Fold this sequence. Notes:
The chain is α/β, with parallel strands linked by helices. The protein is built from ten helices and ten strands. It has two domains: 1-79 and 170-257, 3-Layer(aba) Sandwich (Rossmann fold); 84-158, no CATH class.
Amino acid sequence: xxxxxxxxxxxxxxxxxxxxxxxxxxxxxxxxxxxxxxxxxxxxxxxxxxxxxxxxxxxxxxxxxxxxxxxxxxxxxxxxxxxxxxxxxxxxxxxxxxxxxxxxxxxxxxxxxxxxxxxxxxxxxxxxxxxxxxxxxxxxxxxxxxxxxxxxxxxxxxxxxxxxxxxxxxxxxxxxxxxxxxxxxxxxxxxxxxxxxxxxxxxxxxxxxxxxxxxxxxxxxxxxxxxxxxxxxxxxxxxxxxxxxxxxxxxxxxxxx
Length: 257
């Protein structure tokens, strides 16, 4: 069963075609990746999927419904959650408070109810606090719960952003270059986290330039080049695809991934 289906997605910026008739199906389980050279249209694709940018043509279907053109907050409420290339946290809030923001996407009262002194609101807030702390323990940030997000090292900020996204209980999690700026140890930690997310039946769609990470964790890979989808398949199929080697990997890199 697929969780996401793209039908003929095209996005134009004046005379520039950033996405050119992209059709793609993302399974409801496992980790799928989108790769390609800089300027291939990967982040534009994420922007279209998550509602930050309407397509010029084509339709986006998520969880059996047409979500084309819906605003980002509506799409997020349907449990399609994304992160960004640049870390976007509430840096004046603590680590725990950042995760609780994500939890409130699926509470009945939302953030407003957390401010109301009713018994039901207090009970819901206690449940949110417990869920947020549990997620932080799972992602290795439990000891930093009361730390301001602003003072975290960069690698932990990346983990916090993913933890906050998980707090929204996504059916599909879009991760835009989560390994950017991470050292090898942090990337290994990220790989372990990605596997654990998939193991809990949350599907992931990943944009990433770290080919060793992609080949290590991806079940399926789609390759974009100049806005066109040039290949899809398993890691082994993609690394051997002559079009992919010519457009992106190159002979030397293909031999090492």
